[in-house]
Amino acid sequence: MASLVPLNADGQKRSPLAGELKTRFPVAVILLLTLVACGKEGPPLPPEIRIAERTSDLKAYQEGEVAELRWSYPSMTTAGQTLTDIEAIEVWRATLPKGQEPPPPITPQDRALQRQLLEAQGEIVQRLDPPEIEAATRGKFLVYRDDLARWRQGVAVNPETAVVLWYGVRTICCRKRESELSNVARLLPAKPPDPPTGLELTAGAQGIDVRWEAVPGISVLVERSPDGTVWTAVTEQAVSGGEWQDSQADQGRAWSYRLRSVAPLEGGGQVIGDPSEPGRIEHPDTYPPPNPEEVVCLPEGATVRVRWQLVPGAATYEVSRRSGGLPAEVLVSDLTAVEITDVDPPLGNTTYLVVARDAVGNTSDSAECSVVMGAVP
């Protein structure tokens, strides 16, 4: 049977392939144009503008005649990226008569207006360049100390007029781009409280007891020094009352202590006074470790296992045994473990005595347990 061949309009034979190409050609052209269009460059994207994120945790308090500012080290941009190119940090200060100070901000709009007022009436008191930023870094924070005595000399304010200080900081990075001004830290300068009096120091097994004459409304910071020159605050917060125990002072050496009064400020914050006259005390290591506890004797066939709880501060243990009315004999004197096995215990009633010893030789009282051993069949 002959196959059918399609004819053209003029009666000539028409190729099936020619018809197929004629049908597919428009599709191929469309695909080609699409590919060309995909490779065409669009308009260039604008470069990313890097700006440091605004500081929001600035705090200020007064220590003697110094206003200390503390805030987190700038680490992020407004886009949430890591900030690595800080060029400077500006410290702002404004002096306002207390009677003209706006009320505390409540809304974000209030806080924005507060920052605008600081920028309008304030001034840059310090520009911290990279070396100064490094010197001001304290771990995750930056610290700046403003000399209030110098501020009083340069400000034209009636001594009878109460004034308030507003502080703010601004980070400059990324080719001199400025961040928004930080939150406003408020400080009402006040006369520092007098140092505490009546400092007394007493050393004991649990630590060094520090006592002073308590003053109503005044709390106290305790500072400690190994040599009387380099001081460290050993109380995280100011303590109330007239005594505090330093349980972290190492034994076997002398320590110096001094105190600072801390008074609350109106509207929040605090003012820290000058340090008291220091006192010094020897803290000798003459205190024995605690007695061993839970001493038990466990017969195990022809042997006896003696064990006890770990004693805080003990370096070694001494174990003795006493039997038949005879004086106690030492089995081991420098044991570091908390158990021992007596492989040759005597028959009859035997008492085991355990003593704890610290690194300098102070020994506890003995703790004991007893066991009755019979002949093993």
What is shown here, in short?
By secondary structure, this protein is mainly beta.
Q: Which terms would index this structure?
A:
377 residues, mainly beta, nine-stranded mixed β-sheet, 4 helices, 14% helix, elongated
Write the topology of this structure:
Blueprint (H helix, E strand, L loop, with lengths): L15 H23 L20 E5 L2 E7 L13 E12 L10 H14 L1 E6 L1 H7 E2 L2 E7 H7 L8 E11 L3 E2 L6 E3 L12 E5 L2 E5 L7 E7 L6 E2 L9 E4 L6 E12 L5 E6 L3 E5 L12 E5 L2 E5 L8 E8 L5 E7 L3 E4 L5 E10 L9 E7 L4
Parallel strand pairs: 1-16
Antiparallel strand pairs: 1-2, 2-6, 3-4, 3-7, 5-6, 7-8, 7-9, 10-11, 11-14, 12-13, 12-15, 15-16, 15-17, 18-19, 19-22, 20-21, 20-23, 23-24
Could you characterize the architecture of this molecule?
With 377 residues, the chain is mostly beta strands. Helix content is 14%, strand content 39%. It has 4 helices and 24 strands. The strands form 5 sheets. Strands 1, 2, 5, 6, 12, 13, 15, 16 and 17 form a 9-stranded mixed beta sheet that branches. A hairpin with a 2-residue loop joins β18 and β19. The longest helix is centred in the first third of the chain and has 23 residues. The chain is elongated. The N terminus is likely disordered.
